[in-house]
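Quarterly update from the structural biology core.
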Amino acid sequence: MYACDMSNKAFSEESTLKSHLRPHAIEKPFACDMCYKTFSKHPDLMEHSETHTNEKPFACDLSDETFSQHPTLISQLLTCAKDKPYACEICNKAFPRYTHLMTHLRTHTKEKPYACDKCHKTFSHRETLTSHLRTHTKEKPFICDVCNQAFSDRTTLRNHLRTHTKEKPFACYICTRAFSQRSALKKHIQTHTKEKPYACVMCSKTFAQNSTLKTHLRILHTYGCNFCNKTFSKRSHLMEHLRTHTKEKPCVIKGAYVHKKKQYECDKCNKTFSYRSTFTSHLRTHAKEKLYTCDKCNKTFSYRSSLTSHLRTHTKEKPFLCHVCNKAFSDRSTLKNHLRTHTNEKPFACDFCDKAFTQNSSFKRHLLSHTKGEPHVCDICHKTYSRRENLMKHLQTHTE
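Predicted structure, tokenized:
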């Protein structure tokens, strides 16, 4: 901390202390070349210089007048603001210009006429689109005079400058506490009004902050799976998880009927998938596409997970530990299969003789004893086929 010996004030940065000390020392190192008037701060000198150059960079949005100094602009804005003939019929907010009212109305209509040609995101205001475009171009034209940090929009720069000036222009009208950001003031006022606009749809409890509502939902209203008691913070996540139990494959809805073609169905082998990511990965097995290469032996793989598991054959890493016997394994699926030797779980059941197996590979070998070498079985009539595509054609006879 940097302390002032004259006022006993303390500052976190030396530059802030130096700025503070100037009024004590009556130090005014910044002099005007035209009239030799001196100033304690460089921005004050720059603003004064404009009175000599006739430059008027401060424009009033309400009257189109321009001014050489910022305080004069503020006075003009206060004068113009008294006359606001254009009122919003929805919320009664008034504006001095018709164009300002039209722009405001979009907050009610949710109209977003300005579209980004890069990502097609839409915006209500042209200025917001202009700022957004800089996220693509990485342009940061607004520079802080104090620390040279760059920003993509003027508002962010203005907010940042307050970290140097310690300015807090947003004051609470109830307790006079001041804040550097408007959003911080808005949150603070709710501590006085006790306003709680964010309501929980599950228990009707209300909250002052949206973040508090999200925390409440995550902790108290998790969505539980009836099969395995696993919980999820979002209903959509639970619904996706349930497919691992029901083996449901999402269908495409067309008109008033359910189309027979599965949404994630491979055109090559008619295999279906519950998840788009799994379906995309499967397609690589047909395309013989192997994007992932081992940097040790140059072996290639279709899936990143396969490469990760393969690398452990080089590193001898076995991060998956059995909590029963402490035996270690290089991949999760092998550990999962091993755990069934302890739990005696046999999830792969035969529909023909009720025999069950701990491993899927053992189950498939057993099926061949019933199907006479034809592994693809119809779940409805138990007819068997040697090829999957023949089974898929047969299934259509049940749905017709």
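The radius of gyration is 35 Å.
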